[in-house]
Amino acid sequence: MNGSAHGVASFTDITLKRGPAGLGFNIVGGVDQQYIMNDSGIYVAKIKENGAAALDGRLLEGDKVIAINGQKLDNLSHGAAVELFRSAGEDVHLRIQQRPILQNGPTSSRADGESSSAFGTWTMYTVVALAVVTAGFIAYKRLQLNHRGPRGPF
Q1: Is 50 helix (H, G, I), strand (E, B) or coil?
Q2: Are residues 90 and 56 in the same domain?
Q3: Are 73 and 84 in contact (CB under 8 A)?
Q4: Are 65 and 27 contacting, i.e. CB atoms less than 8 angstroms apart?
Q5: Which of 1, 59, 106, 114 could form a disulfide with 110 if both were Cys (CB 3.0 to 4.6 A apart)?
Q6: CA end-to-end span of the chain, whole Å?
Q7: 55 within domain boundaries
Q8: Beta bridge partners of 102
Q9: pLDDT tens for residues 60-76?
Q10: Does the keyword Repeat apply (predicted)?
């Protein structure tokens, strides 16, 4: 199946030590600011360069934070989640649902890091073909308007 999630969502437990710049990542989401439609979860929006999360390397942008220090983040507002992060202490234990790995092309047994670019190539050709057809149509319409003869209320 093209563009489908491959495999089951996986969970990871990560402990980060709060650094001078905090935990080193930004979050989005919550019941009042849903990041994904019909999902009030809290997601990692950005990993800050040289922050605790970046130096650890396991947390990725797009990962869903399930719990902080054992406390689940279900049905929290964005502000309440931010407050939990701020008050979590120096050593912060996170339960993460890693973002699904998207794979273009049919599912097959490929080596890690190898991907199919066929879908992307066909998409590019389709966009180019549509642009050429549209440009031709516009040129045709302009020629048609320019060769109508005199205009006016007759």
Answers
A1: coil
A2: yes
A3: yes
A4: yes
A5: 114
A6: 60
A7: yes
A8: 5
A9: 999 999 999 999 999 99
A10: no
